[in-house]
Design brief:
With about 70 residues, this protein is of the alpha+beta class. It has one domain: Threonyl-trna Synthetase, Chain A, domain 2 (Threonyl-tRNA Synthetase, Chain A, domain 2, 2-Layer Sandwich). The chain has 2 helices and 4 strands. Strand 3 and strand 4 form a beta hairpin.
Length: about 70
């Protein structure tokens, strides 16, 4: 998995990641869970500790990427 972009502002976090072909074939629920865990790890590395509630999930099949946005819960 490759992070294409991420953005943290106020109480929201956006991330766009590209998966390998095999990783992209996972169930949507599994992909969202994986991206949420990655997002929490990034926030923890910056000293922030939050539980994230998912807002947006967009799957781009043409390039095996996923865009997710989360808010602090």
């Amino acid at each position: 998995m490759e992070i294409i972009s991420f953005k943290y502002e106020n109480s929201s976090f956006e991330i766009h990641v590209r998966f390998s072909a095999s990783g992209f074939k996972q169930d949507d629920r599994d992909i969202i869970s994986h991206v949420r865990k990655l997002s929490i790890s990034i926030l923890k590395a910056t000293g922030l500790r939050y539980f994230l509630k998912g807002n947006t999930y967009i799957k781009h099949e043409e390039d095996n990427s996923v865009y997710c946005s989360f808010e602090h819960d």
